[in-house]
Amino acid sequence: MASSSMIFEVYAPVEADSLPAPWQEQLRIWLPVLAFALLVALESTSYFGADRTSEPLRRLVEALFGYDACVHWNLIHILIRKTGHFIGYGAFSLVCFHAFWNTLGGVASGMGRQLRAHGLAILTTFLVAGADELHQSFVPNRTGLFSDVLLDTCGGAAICLALFLTVQMAEWIKRVRALPDSETLVSVAVR
After folding, report:
1. How far apart are CA 52 and CA 62, in angstroms?
2. C-beta of residue 86 within 8 angstroms of C-beta of residue 155
3. Which of 163, 159, 173 is closest to 93 using CA atoms?
C-alpha cells in the first residue's frame, strides 16, 4: 500500500529552484503559436496549391459521396479550400488567444484581460494571414488575395467571439447558481 507522502507528493509546495526560468515558461506558452505559424508557412508552398490539391481531394470526395458529387467539382474544391482557410485560421486565433491570455496574466484582469487577449489574437491572425498571402503572391502556382486575408481574419474573429460568448455564459450560469433561492433570474440580468 502506498504511503500518503507518495500519493500527495505531487501537491507538495514547489521549490524555487525547480521552477522553470521565465524564458522557458514563455517558450512553453508561445511554442504552439510558432508551430502553427510554421504550418501556415509550409502550406503556403507550391506543393499545396489548388492545382496540386484538386485531385487528392476529388478522390476523397468521390470515395465518401460517390461520383455524382463531383459534377460541380470546381465549386466544391473552392468551398473545401476556403473552409480550410476559415477553420485553420480560427484555430490559429484560438492558439494566439491562449498565448496572450497567459502572457497578460499580470498586466490586466477580468474583462479587460479577456478583451485584450481576443483583440491581440485577431490582430495577430490578420497579420499572419496578410504575410501568408503576400508570400503566396511570389509563389508560381499560388495567388495572394486580400479576400483570403479577410476570410482568415473572419475565421479568427468567429472563434474568438464563440469563445468569448461561451465564457460569458459560463460566468452567468455560475452567478445564477450562487444566488440564494429567494432571488430571481431578473435580478441577475439587471446586475
Report:
1. 17
2. yes
3. 159
- pLDDT given for residue 30 in this prediction: 95
Domain contains 3: no
Range with the poorest average pLDDT among 3-7, 77-81, 89-93? 3-7
At residue 22, the pLDDT reads: 83
Q: What distance in Å separates the CA atoms of residue 141 and residue 52, rounded to the nearest whole number? A: 9
- Residue 114 in any domain: the answer is yes
Other Cβ atoms less than 10 A from the Cβ of 6: the count is: 9
- The residues, any chain, with a CB within 8 Å of residue 190's CB and separated by 6 or more, are none
Output the pTM of the full model. Answer: 0.76
Full residue range of the structural domain in which residue 144 is found: 23-156
Residues 6+ apart with CB under 8 A from 132: 40, 41, 44, 152
Residue carrying C-alpha cell 481574419: 153
In which band, very low, low, confident or very high, does the pLDDT at 110 lie, cut at 50, 70 and 90? confident
In a domain, 47, yes or no: yes
Does residue 124 carry a pLDDT above 90?
Answer: yes
